[in-house]
C-alpha cells in the first residue's frame, strides 16, 4: 500500500468515501461476509420499518373507501335521483356479515361504490369473501337468509379490504317508515372516532416493534468492527491521520447501510402480498394499500445511514487507532442516573394526567435509558465465584454496552407485551362477566322501537325454536322498570332469589341513577297509557345489570309486583327471549334467517356468545405469538453479537486455553455474559410492564389484576432464548479452541 496524500483540499472527504467503498467491496471473503451480515441485518430492520411506515397509508385508504360508501345527503321526498338504503348486520357462525338493502326510486338513483348499477329487487351483489362463504360448507343455509340470486361481485373500491364480508341486496318493499333512509348520494362520511383503548394498544404495539428493530439496525452496522479497526490501523501506517480514519470508517458503515436499504426495500416488496394473511378480516389491506408515505420513506432513507454513521463514529471514541495496532480505552465510564429518570418520570406524569399514548411511549423509552445504568450498577458489585463466573462478570464490567444493546430490545418487548396482555386479559374478564347465562334462554330479539306484533308467531314457527317468552318495560314516575317473570329477569341481572310479586333496584357500572324512597306511591304507565300506581316497598334488594342488557333500567319487576297480567298486556313489549333446541346446532342460524326476513335491522343477542371473548383471546394469542417472534428476532441479533464477540476475542480465548481454561469454563463464561444482562433486563421489564399494566387498567376503570400466567410465559420465553443463544454459540467456541486454531493465534 502506498502512502496517502494528506494535502487533498476541501473535498478530501469524497476521496475518503471512495476509499471506504473500495475497502468494503475489496476485502476478500471476510470483507464480503462482513458486508453481507451488515446488509442483511440492516435490510431486515428496514423491511420491518417500511411495513410499519405503510400502516398509516393502508389505514387511510381503508377509511377513505368506508367514507366513500357512507350515505350522503338525505332527502325528504322521492325523486328520480333518490335511493332508499337500510344498513343491516347479521352473523353466520363466527363471521360478521354486513350489508345494505337498497331500492332505487328513480332512474338517476346514486350507485354505491364498487357497483356498476343499483341492484334490482331480488338481486344480490356480494364481496369476494362473502361469495366464498356462500360456496363453502353450510353456504346453502346462509343463502336462505336472502331470497335473491347473486348477480355480481363488489369491486375493491366498495370494500374496506379484500376479506370484508359485505353485500348489497335489491329490495322491492323497502320503505322510509320501515327504517330505511332516503339519500341522493354516497360519500362524505365522517371518520369514526378511535377507541382510546385500541389507540393505546396500537401505540404500545408500535413501540414494541420499532424500538427493538431500531436497536437491531444500529447493532447490525457494527458487525465486524474489530476487523475494520485493524484495517484502519493499516491505513494509519501508510500516512492517514485520525480524522481521515474516522471518515473512512463512517464511509464503510455508510456502504453497508445503503446496501441494507436496498435489501430492505426488496424484502418489503416480497412480504407485502402476505401481510394481509396475518391480520383479522376487518383490517386486511389490499397489497397496493401498503405504500409507505413519501415523508416516512425519506425519513428511513435518511435516518438509517445517518444513524449508522453516528453509531460508528461514537464507537470509535473509545478506541485509539495507531499505526501499529488498536488500543481500547480501559477507563470504565460511570453512567449518570438523573437524566435517565426523566423519560419514565415524564411518562408516569402523563399517564396520571390521562395522556395514555404519550405516557406509554415515554415509559417504554425509559426502559431503554435505564437499562445500561442498571446493568453497570449491578455487575460492578458482582465478584467472587467460579472461574467461569469471574471471566463472564469481568468482561461485563469492562464492556457491557454490546450486551445491553441487544437486551434493551428484550426489555422493551417484555414490558410492552405484559402491558398489552393485562389490558386484553381484563377485556376477556369484562366480556365474560357481562354475559347472561345461557342455560334457560339462548337468544333474545329486541324490537328496537319497531312494532313487534306477530313476531312471536314467526319466531315460534322457526325450526329449532322451542319456546318464546316476552319481556317489556314501563314507567314508574320518571324511572324505567323492566318487566318479566323470574326466568326472564335473570337474563338481565343475577337475582338472589325470585318469586312472582318481587321487585328489584337495578344498577349498572358507569351509569348513575336515582331511586324512589320506600312508601312513596308513583303512577305506573305503559305504552303512554296509565296502568295504575305502585307503592314502593321497603327492603328491595339491589342487583347489578349485565352490561350486555338492552339499556339501563332503574327497576326490575315481576307482573305480580305491579298487578298486571302475565302476558304483559298494556306495556311496551320490546324483547322476545328464545329457547333453542340444544341438539340442533343450526337453530341459531335459522333464527337469524327468520329475523332477516321479519326485521333485518332488529338486534339479535345470543346469550353465552363467546364470539367477542374469543376475539380478545385471539388477540391475546396474537400478542403472545408476536412476542415470541420478536424474541426470536432479538435472539438472532444476540446470537450474531455473541458470534462476533467470540471471533474478535479468538486470541484471548487462545491464551486462556493455553493457560488451562477448559472449554466447559469458557462456555459457562459466555452464558454468564448473556444471562446476567438478560436477567436484569427481564426483571426491569416485569416491574415496568406490571406497573404499566396496573396504571392502564386503573385508567380504564377495570379491576387491577396482573396477568401472572402471561408474565410467567413471556419471562420463560426470554430465559429460553438466552439458553438457546448460548447453546448456538458453543460450536463456534469449540472450533476456536481447537489445537489447530490455537497454533494460528
Protein described:
It is built from 21 helices and 18 strands. The two termini are 25 Å apart. By secondary structure, the chain is an alpha+beta fold. Among the domains are: 71-183, no CATH class; 332-435 and 610-745, no CATH class; 443-608, no CATH class. Strands 9, 10, 11, 12, 13, 14, 15, 16, 17 and 18 form a ten-stranded mixed β-sheet that branches. The chain has a six-stranded mixed β-sheet with strand order 4-3-5-2-1-6.
* Fraction of residues in β-strands: 5-15%
State the major sheet: 10 strands, mixed
Radius of gyration: 34 Å
Mean pLDDT: 80
Helical stretch tally: 21
Low-pLDDT segments: none
Number of β-strand runs: 18
Estimate percent helicity: 40-55%
- Which term fits the overall shape? elongated
- State the distance separating the first and last CA atoms: 25 Å
Structural class: alpha+beta
Layout of SSEs?
Elements (H helix, E strand, L loop, with lengths): L11 H14 L2 H41 L14 E10 L2 E10 L18 E4 L1 H8 L3 H5 L5 E5 L12 E5 L10 E3 L12 H25 L4 H13 L4 H34 L18 H23 L2 E4 L2 E4 L13 H11 L3 H25 L6 H12 L2 H34 L8 E4 L8 H6 L4 E12 L2 E5 L2 H4 L13 E5 L13 E6 L2 E7 L6 E3 L10 E3 L1 H4 L9 E9 L6 H12 L5 E3 L4 H38 L1 H9 L4 H37 L8 H29 L2 H6 L1
Helix pairs in contact: 1-7, 2-5, 2-7, 2-8, 5-10, 5-12, 5-17, 6-7, 7-8, 9-10, 10-12, 10-19, 11-19, 12-17, 12-19, 12-20, 17-20, 19-20
Amino acid at each position: 500500500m502506498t502512502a496517502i496524500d494528506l494535502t487533498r483540499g476541501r473535498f478530501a472527504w469524497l476521496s475518503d468515501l471512495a476509499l471506504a467503498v473500495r475497502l468494503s467491496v475489496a476485502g476478500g471473503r471476510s470483507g464480503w461476509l462482513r458486508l453481507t451480515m451488515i446488509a442483511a441485518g440492516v435490510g431486515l430492520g428496514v423491511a420491518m420499518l417500511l411495513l410499519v411506515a405503510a400502516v398509516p397509508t393502508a389505514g387511510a385508504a381503508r377509511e377513505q373507501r368506508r367514507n366513500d360508501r357512507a350515505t350522503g345527503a338525505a332527502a325528504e321526498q322521492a325523486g328520480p335521483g333518490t335511493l332508499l338504503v337500510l344498513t343491516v348486520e347479521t352473523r353466520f357462525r363466527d363471521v360478521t356479515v354486513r350489508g345494505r338493502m337498497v331500492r332505487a326510486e328513480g332512474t338517476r338513483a346514486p350507485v354505491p361504490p364498487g357497483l356498476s348499477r343499483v341492484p334490482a329487487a331480488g338481486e344480490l351483489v356480494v364481496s369476494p369473501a362473502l361469495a366464498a362463504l356462500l360456496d363453502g360448507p353450510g353456504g346453502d343455509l346462509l343463502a336462505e337468509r336472502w331470497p335473491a340470486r347473486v348477480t355480481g361481485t363488489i369491486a375493491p373500491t366498495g370494500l374496506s379490504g379484500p376479506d370484508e364480508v359485505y353485500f348489497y341486496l335489491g329490495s322491492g318493499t323497502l320503505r322510509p317508515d320501515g327504517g330505511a333512509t332516503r339519500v341522493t348520494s354516497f360519500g362524505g362520511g365522517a371518520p369514526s372516532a378511535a377507541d382510546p383503548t385500541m389507540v393505546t394498544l396500537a401505540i404500545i404495539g408500535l413501540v414494541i416493534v420499532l424500538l427493538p428493530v431500531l436497536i437491531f439496525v444500529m447493532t447490525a452496522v457494527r458487525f465486524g468492527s474489530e476487523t475494520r479497526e485493524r484495517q484502519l490501523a493499516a491505513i494509519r501506517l501508510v500516512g492517514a491521520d485520525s480524522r481521515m480514519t474516522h471518515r473512512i470508517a463512517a464511509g464503510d458503515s455508510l456502504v453497508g447501510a445503503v446496501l441494507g436499504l436496498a435489501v430492505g426495500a426488496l424484502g418489503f416488496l416480497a412480504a407485502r402480498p402476505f401481510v394481509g394473511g396475518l391480520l383479522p378480516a376487518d383490517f386486511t389491506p389490499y397489497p397496493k394499500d401498503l405504500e409507505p408515505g413519501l415523508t416516512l420513506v425519506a425519513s428511513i432513507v435518511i435516518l438509517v445511514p445517518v444513524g449508522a454513521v453516528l453509531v460508528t463514529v461514537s464507537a470509535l471514541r473509545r478506541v485509539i487507532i495507531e499505526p501499529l495496532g488498536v488500543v481500547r480505552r480501559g477507563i470504565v465510564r460511570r453512567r449518570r442516573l438523573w437524566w435517565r429518570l426523566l423519560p419514565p418520570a415524564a411518562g408516569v406524569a402523563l399517564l396520571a394526567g390521562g395522556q395514555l399514548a404519550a405516557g406509554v411511549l415515554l415509559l417504554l423509552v425509559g426502559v431503554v435509558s435505564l437499562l445500561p445504568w442498571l446493568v453497570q450498577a449491578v455487575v460492578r458489585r458482582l465478584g467472587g465465584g467460579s472461574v467461569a463466573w469471574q471471566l463472564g462478570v469481568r468482561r461485563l464490567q469492562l464492556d457491557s454496552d454490546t450486551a445491553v444493546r441487544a437486551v434493551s430490545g428484550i426489555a422493551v418487548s417484555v414490558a410492552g407485551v405484559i402491558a398489552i396482555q393485562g389490558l386484553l386479559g381484563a377485556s376477556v374478564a369484562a366480556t365474560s362477566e357481562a354475559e347472561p347465562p345461557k342455560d334457560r334462554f339462548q337468544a333474545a330479539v329486541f324490537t328496537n322501537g319497531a312494532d313487534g306484533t306477530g313476531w312471536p308467531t314467526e319466531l315460534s314457527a322457526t325450526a329449532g325454536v322451542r319456546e318464546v317468552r316476552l319481556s317489556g318495560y314501563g314507567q314508574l314516575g320518571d324511572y324505567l322498570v323492566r318487566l318479566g317473570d323470574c326466568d326472564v329477569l335473570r337474563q338481565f341481572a343475577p337475582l338472589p332469589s325470585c318469586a312472582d310479586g318481587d321487585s328489584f333496584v337495578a344498577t349498572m357500572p358507569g351509569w348513575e341513577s336515582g331511586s324512589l324512597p320506600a312508601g312513596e306511591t308513583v303512577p305506573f304507565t305503559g305504552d303512554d297509557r296509565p296502568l295504575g300506581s305502585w307503592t314502593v316497598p321497603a327492603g328491595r334488594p339491589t342487583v347489578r345489570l349485565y352490561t350486555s342488557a338492552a339499556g339501563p333500567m332503574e327497576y326490575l319487576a315481576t307482573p305480580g309486583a305491579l298487578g298486571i297480567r302475565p302476558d304483559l298486556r298494556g306495556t311496551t313489549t320490546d324483547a322476545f327471549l328464545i329457547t333453542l333446541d340444544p341438539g340442533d346446532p343450526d337453530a341459531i342460524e335459522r333464527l337469524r334467517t327468520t329475523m332477516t326476513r321479519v326485521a333485518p335491522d332488529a338486534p339479535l343477542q345470543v346469550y353465552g356468545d363467546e364470539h367477542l371473548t374469543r376475539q380478545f383471546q385471539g388477540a391475546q394469542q396474537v400478542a403472545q405469538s408476536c412476542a415470541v417472534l420478536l424474541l426470536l428476532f432479538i435472539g438472532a441479533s444476540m446470537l450474531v453479537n455473541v458470534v462476533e464477540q467470540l471471533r474478535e476475542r479468538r486470541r484471548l480465548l487462545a491464551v486462556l486455553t493455553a493457560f488451562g481454561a477448559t472449554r466447559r469454563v469458557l462456555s459457562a463464561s459466555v452464558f454468564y455474559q448473556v444471562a446476567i444482562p438478560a436477567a436484569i433486563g427481564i426483571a426491569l421489564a416485569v416491574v415496568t410492564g406490571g406497573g404499566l399494566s396496573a396504571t392502564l387498567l386503573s385508567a380504564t376503570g377495570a379491576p387491577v389484576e396482573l396477568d401472572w400466567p402471561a408474565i410467567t410465559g413471556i419471562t420463560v420465553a426470554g430465559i429460553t432464548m438466552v439458553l438457546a443463544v448460548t447453546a448456538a454459540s458453543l460450536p463456534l467456541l469449540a472450533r476456536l479452541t481447537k489445537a489447530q486454531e490455537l497454533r494460528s493465534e
